[in-house]
Amino acid sequence: MDGSIDASPFSVTLLQDDESLRRWKEQLLGSVDLNSVGETLEPDVKIMSLSIQSPGRPDIFLPLPVEPSSGKGVWFTLKEGSPYKLKFTFSVSNNIVSGLRYTNTVWKTGIKVDSTKEMLGTFSPQPEPYAYVTPEETTPSGMFARGSYSAKTKFLDDDRKCYLQINYTFDIRREWPSSG
User: Fold this and answer.
1) Is residue 22 classed as helix, strand or coil in its secondary structure?
2) Which of 33, 82, 91, 115 is exposed most, by the fewest CB atoms within 10 A?
3) What is the DSSP letter of 17?
4) Tell me, which fold does domain 44-173 have in CATH?
5) How many CB atoms lie within 10 A of CB 56?
6) Where are the domains positioned within the chain?
7) Which compartments is it annotated to reside in (predicted)?
8) CB count, 10 Å around CB of 124?
9) Which residue spans within the chain are E strands per DSSP?
C-alpha cells in the first residue's frame, strides 16, 4: 500500500449527501422536479431576444440569430447623447446555470473604446423565459463620437461556456434614423 487513496467516489458521496447543497438547489429550483435535474446535464441557455430601450422611442428589437450576410452591414443606429438600456430575454433548461454574464466590447477604427461586463446571475430551469434589463447608459456625443463602431457580445457562465457570441457593427449619428 503506497498511502494514496482514490477520493473520487468519496467526493461524489459527499456532494450527494451535502445537505446545504441540496437546500440551495431546492431554493433555486423551486417547484422543478429535482430528479429531472441531473448532476451530469449541462445547463442550456437560449438567448431569445435582444432589444434596446430609449425613453420616448419605440424599442429597437435586434434579430436573432444574426444572419451571416447581415453581419457586414449596420445592425442598428443610435442617436448621440441618448440614454438607453439593453433588455435580454432568455430561457434556461436542463440544469441550473451559474454566474450567467454578458460581455460587450466596442471598437472604433480598430481602437477599443468600451468594455462592459454585466453579471446577470444564477438561474434555474423554468418554462417561462427570464428577462434582464441593464442599468441605463448614455451614448457618447460630439463630432468624434459619431460614426461606425464594431462590437462583440458574449453570454457566458462561470464555467466560461459561451451560449451566444455576436460580432456586429452599429452607428452613432446626430439624429435617430427616420422610421419611414
Assistant:
1) helix
2) 33
3) H
4) Coagulation Factor XIII; Chain A, domain 1 (2.70.50)
5) 7
6) 44-173
7) Cytoplasm
8) 20
9) 44-53, 60-62, 74-79, 83-93, 97-108, 111-123, 130-133, 137-138, 147-156, 162-173
